[in-house]
Design a protein that fits this description.
Low-confidence stretches: none
Largest sheet: 2 strands, antiparallel
Distance between the termini: 85 Å
Strand order of the largest sheet: 1-2
Number of strands: 2
Strand content: under 5%
CATH architecture: Orthogonal Bundle
Mean pLDDT: 88
């Protein structure tokens, strides 16, 4: 609830309402329309408070930083998925391939040189 979160983090409930209006926090609501903060919401609040209190970042800057963090996490997930897929594909390659092919990341097609006379 907003009152207990405000007390726990030493902020005014209006500050939490402002963060919600600005889209920085998005607590869920109970049937009675009471704000319910998850662990993820509280972790996000801690980041917001660190940026504003300790680093002096304004709310527009906080929004940019939070969006960039979200994009970086998505990129990290994509990279991990790429590495996982790459490892799976490499594990499925036949063992009898030439050593230079086994050590390359991209398969190289074998070509036959054509001599032109002219």
């Amino acid at each position: 609830m907003i009152s207990s979160v405000a007390e726990q983090y030493n902020v005014h409930p209006q500050t939490l309402r402002l963060y919600e209006r600005e889209g920085l926090l998005k607590p869920s609501r109970s049937d009675g329309n009471t704000r319910l903060y998850t662990e993820e919401d509280l972790e996000r609040l801690e980041v917001i408070l660190h940026l504003t209190r300790d680093l002096g970042v304004n709310l527009a800057g906080v929004e940019i930083i939070l969006n960039m963090r979200q994009k970086m996490e998505a990129m990290q997930d994509q990279m991990e998925q790429f590495v996982h897929t790459l490892n799976q594909e490499l594990a499925q390659r036949p063992r009898n391939e030439r050593s230079e092919d086994r050590n390359s990341l991209i398969p190289v097609a074998r070509t036959i040189p054509i001599r032109r006379h002219g």
